[in-house]
Amino acid sequence: MRIIHGTGYTDDDKRSFIKIIYQNIYMAMHAMTRAIETLRIPFEDSSTPKVLRDIDYETRDNAGARPPRIPANRFGLSTTWIAWTASADYLPTLQDILRTRVPTTGIVEYPFDLDSSSFAWWMSERSERRKWIHCFENVTSIMFLVALSEYDQVLVESDNENRMEESKALFSAPSSLILDYFPEFDGPQRDAQAGQRVHTQMFVDLNPDPDKIIYSHFTCAT
């Protein structure tokens, strides 16, 4: 959206992605190493394990090597690859930036000159979702984005949960902040006393010691 409808990325913006790109490459190498060990793929060169342990953002000329096929969906490998260079004047391309995985934390709002509309990017990491409630004031539309390539991939946070199933669960999560919060209450509507009794009983039922008595009292805190 920023590239198509916004001002894109300046050279300084692109340079800010260099460290992230190197981190992505390093993480991919680490994931492949873990996959090789898990799948017990034999090394053609007996010194390779030591090289993998000692490697530090170093590239080697292995153009003639045929790497083993590693199931990316099982080991958190990115399904996109970045054509990169370690030269001092390396400047990421737009494709490099699009294929970069950045941990999604915080809320980023970027104004687009598109019918005077403003778009906010709300991050999908589990730790960030509780912050969404603060972003729905004056919201008229929501775009829910799902990566189709994640149908057989697992979560970064949990390697035994499917990403597509996680997206489905998030999409079907209750979106109303008030309605049907406690659907077990079937009492009369707009009856404050009935609501008080139900909510009081909810907390009384949580009492782990029946010998201890809970006394309830209603008041106004203002």
TrEMBL record:
<dbReference type="GO" id="GO:0031683">
    <property type="term" value="F:G-protein beta/gamma-subunit complex binding"/>
</dbReference>
<dbReference type="InterPro" id="IPR001019">
    <property type="entry name" value="Gprotein_alpha_su"/>
</dbReference>
<keyword id="KW-0479">Metal-binding</keyword>
<dbReference type="GO" id="GO:0005834">
    <property type="term" value="C:heterotrimeric G-protein complex"/>
</dbReference>
<feature type="binding site">
    <location>
        <begin position="98"/>
        <end position="104"/>
    </location>
    <ligand>
        <name>GTP</name>
    </ligand>
</feature>
<keyword id="KW-0547">Nucleotide-binding</keyword>
<comment type="subunit">
    <text>G proteins are composed of 3 units; alpha, beta and gamma. The alpha chain contains the guanine nucleotide binding site.</text>
</comment>
<dbReference type="GO" id="GO:0046872">
    <property type="term" value="F:metal ion binding"/>
</dbReference>
<dbReference type="GO" id="GO:0005525">
    <property type="term" value="F:GTP binding"/>
</dbReference>
<dbReference type="InterPro" id="IPR027417">
    <property type="entry name" value="P-loop_NTPase"/>
</dbReference>
<dbReference type="GO" id="GO:0003924">
    <property type="term" value="F:GTPase activity"/>
</dbReference>
<dbReference type="InterPro" id="IPR011025">
    <property type="entry name" value="GproteinA_insert"/>
</dbReference>
<dbReference type="GO" id="GO:0005737">
    <property type="term" value="C:cytoplasm"/>
</dbReference>
<protein>
    <submittedName>
        <fullName>Fungal_trans domain-containing protein</fullName>
    </submittedName>
</protein>
<keyword id="KW-0807">Transducer</keyword>
<keyword id="KW-0460">Magnesium</keyword>
<dbReference type="Pfam" id="PF00503">
    <property type="entry name" value="G-alpha"/>
</dbReference>
<dbReference type="GO" id="GO:0007188">
    <property type="term" value="P:adenylate cyclase-modulating G protein-coupled receptor signaling pathway"/>
</dbReference>
<keyword id="KW-0342">GTP-binding</keyword>
<dbReference type="GO" id="GO:0001664">
    <property type="term" value="F:G protein-coupled receptor binding"/>
</dbReference>
<feature type="binding site">
    <location>
        <position position="104"/>
    </location>
    <ligand>
        <name>Mg(2+)</name>
    </ligand>
</feature>
